[in-house]
Write a structure and sequence with these properties.
By secondary structure, the protein is mainly β. The chain has 1 helix and 16 strands. The strands form 4 sheets. Strands 1-3-6-5 form a 4-stranded mixed sheet, with no helix packed on it. A 4-stranded mixed sheet has the order 2-8-7-4, with no helix packed on it.
């Protein structure tokens, strides 16, 4: 009996160990499956994305989080959300109940159309109405059509050829510091079109003197992708000099 009991215990233990960490294959030498990362379909944006251009698709859930302090009388009021369905609108109080402490206003959005859609809000005291110096927030989303994508192009791509599939878009992002007087001026050729551009200023709770931001351009194509994106970095009131900073990429359809 002791021998049979020992055998049963050994078999049981082996089964447990195998369930915990063993992998089996139908044939010897088979390839080990490679884990595939699940795509994140939630895009979360905040105060530092004010003025930004964010690519999404029709299946993306968008979450916008902005600081709000109702004890001051101010609250965020949505002023525009065309092409977006607001599926959630709530105020999240601070974790610690400290008198005068603010919380976070959270909106959950779903795209309803493809193309360019914009969300905007203003921080106001409702009984005062909108004032010229009230804080505003605007963010634009490019909702890519099914089966298409948006390619990111940055300064490291300067002088290269970008392969673009038909129907895809390109988002160019370059550092810019308007406090120096310099700014990017861009032009395109071929089938390329600048559908949207925006300067995203730096964000800090404490203003940083002389800090730069990012200039973004959303480039779409009227047909088979072709042409170039050319930009120059200069002070508009000065004559163009030979050693002025420039940026160029060429688009090629695939």
């Amino acid at each position: 009996m002791k021998t049979i009991y020992g055998i049963l215990m050994a078999v049981t233990l082996a089964g447990i160990l195998c369930a915990a960490g063993c992998t089996t294959t139908e044939t010897a030498g088979g390839d080990t499956p490679t884990p595939v990362a699940v795509q994140d379909k939630i895009v979360s944006v905040a105060q530092d994305n004010n003025g930004d251009i964010i690519p999404v698709d029709m299946h993306t859930e968008i979450r916008i989080r902005l600081p709000e302090n109702p004890t001051t009388g101010y609250s965020w009021n949505v002023t525009g959300a065309d092409g977006l369905a607001i599926t959630g609108d709530t105020f999240v109080p601070p974790e610690k109940q400290i008198p005068g402490a603010g919380g976070t206003h959270v909106w959950t959005l779903e795209p309803k159309v493809t193309g360019i859609v914009t969300f905007s809000a203003v921080y106001v005291r409702p009984w005062e109405g909108i004032q010229p110096d009230d804080e505003t927030y605007t963010i634009t989303f490019y909702v890519a059509p099914e089966g298409t994508s948006v390619m990111d192009v940055i300064s490291a791509n300067n002088g290269t050829t970008i392969s673009v599939s038909k129907g895809d878009a390109v988002l160019v992002a370059l550092d810019e510091n308007p406090t120096t007087g310099y700014q990017w001026t861009a032009a395109v050729s071929g089938t390329a079109e600048i559908a949207l551009e925006s300067f995203i200023p730096p964000y800090s709770e404490t203003p940083i003197v002389g800090a730069g931001g990012v200039h973004k351009w959303l480039v779409t194509f009227t047909g088979e992708p072709s042409g170039t994106f050319d930009a120059g970095y200069a002070r508009p009131w000065e004559e163009t000099v030979e050693d002025a900073e420039s940026f160029t990429v060429t688009f090629a359809g695939v």
